[in-house]
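Q: My labmate handed me this sequence with no annotations at all. I'd like to see what the chain might look like in three dimensions before we decide whether it's worth expressing. Could you predict it?
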Amino acid sequence: MREQELLSARIEFYRKSQRLTYYKLANRSAIPLTTLMHIVNGSTKNPGIFTIIKICSGLNITIGEFFNSKEFENIEFEVE
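A: Here is what I predict for the chain of 80 residues:
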C-alpha cells in the first residue's frame, strides 16, 4: 500500500470507529474541512507532520498509535 493510501485508510479507520463525521473531525483537529478531505481523497500527496499530529489530536490518539500498524513497516513510497 502506498503512503497516501495508508494515511487515508488509518484516518478513516479511526474516524469511523469513533463515529465522527468529517466535519466533526476537522473541527476537533483545528484544521479546515477541505484540508482533511484533500488528505482523505488523496489530492494532498504529502501532508505535513503537524497536520497529522492535529488529526491525531482530533481523534484522541497519539501519533505513535496512529503509526503503530504492520502496514507502516512495509510501506511503499511513491517516487516522483
